[in-house]
Amino acid sequence: MVLTTLKMPQLGESVTEGTVDRWLKKEGDVVRRDEPIVEVVTDKVNAEIPSPVEGRLVRIKVSPGETVPIGAALAELEVEGASVAAEDKPEVPEEPRPQAPPAPADTGRLSPGIRKLMEENGLEIAQIKGTGTGGRVRREDVMSYLAEHRAPANTSPQPAAPRLAPLRGPGDRGDEVVRISAVRRQIAEHMVRSVSTSPHAWSLREVDVTRLLEYREAEKDRFRERHGFPLSYVPFFVQIVCVALLRNPYLNSSWTDEGIVLKHYVNMGIAVALPDTLIVPVVKDADLMGFFDLAHAINDLATRARNKSLRPEDVRDGTFTLNNTGALGSVAGQSIINQPQAAILSTESIRRRPVVVGDTIGIRPIMNLTMSFDHRIIDGLAASRFLNDVQAGIEDWTPEKIKL
Fold first, then answer.
1. Which domain holds residue 83?
2. Which one-letter DSSP state was computed for residue 93?
């Protein structure tokens, strides 16, 4: 029997850590190769991590709710008659050595949320003993310190705190504390990082979608019969935006210390709303795909996102994000950039409005395009040129423009 190690995988571009949400197996369970063994979440993906071998789970090393860096050991599995790579072999126990003083906490890996919590309570990193990997300070460490050092000196019995009653109906009054899930906490920290990293600017454009609407209404029943899923506006928008991005490469770029990296290909992130979160799977090389291939790829990613069956590679390497907030009824909004991208475009709800058509007033289906962009990379002129191209692509659209 030999031991092999299950490690925290790389779960997305720029992701440096992941949180164990729940274990799907318990210690002592037999697992098959590629069988899901643990569910891990980041701000980008909620993924089930498969077992790399067939064997028995002998030791869980990371508890649910704990955040560890990429590459950290999550568990050990016992394998019968298997050869194990050197890096996965358990370390040979060494002779006992004199107890060394605990290592100082890892100050370079404080998440923005934990750093803010410490600042709000006037704490220094030296005061906290980190229990995470490599002495890393976790939220639980800060809360434990506060509970231990800030309790009132008076030890006389205190009345029990009132229980917080959940709101079950209009006749019930009270507060309800909802546990923050690991994925929601990761998203919150990612949003804070994005806003503090990129100076966000914002633009809005009204677009007439008459031609797209008429085509979709005429073809949606035939499309569903042929392909087995509804024809949405998203593949039309993705195809149009891909053309505009290749004409305006600074919208499809990233800021680095060495310079602005222009991406001469489009990996389109598609924001998918789930009941309790948002996830952005990526259509790779979307600019090379025909319309029907795009529609199938988008439907496949959205379906697997809702079923929590995305793979880590499904959320990596996005170059631009499209957010179809109109599907939820929004008419205008300011999205936060998905780092390290340069911009995010939202297609809002289509509404029939009175507009000037020539010298008359007409009723047209109008949609707002809203875009947040990184003002370090893009100025108002570049943003307007890009939106001009997207607007023209929508308003001048014809069926002949579909790439098969």
1. 1-89+110-147+182-197
2. P
What is the per-residue pLDDT across 150-174, written as a single tens digit (0 to 9) for each?
A: 544 343 444 444 444 444 556 667 7
Catalytic residue (choose from 34, 172, 379, 396):
379
CA-CA-CA-CA dihedral for 377, 239, 187, 274, to nearest 10: 160
pTM given for the model? 0.63
Do 231 and 118 lie in one domain? The reply is no
| Reduced 3-state DSSP string for 185-201 | HHHHHHHHHHHHHCCEE
In which residue are the tokens 């750093």 written? 115
- Could you confirm whether 227 is annotated as catalytic? no
Q: Is 379 a catalytic residue?
A: yes
In a domain, 390, yes or no: yes
Say if 99 falls within a structural domain.
no
Q: Give the CATH number, domain containing residue 43.
A: 2.40.50.100
**Residues 246, 248, 249, 252, CA torsion sign:** negative
From the list 314, 375, 389, 396, the catalytic residue is 375
77 and 28 fall within a common domain: yes
Domain assignment of residue 159, yes or no: no
| Average pLDDT score over the chain | 81
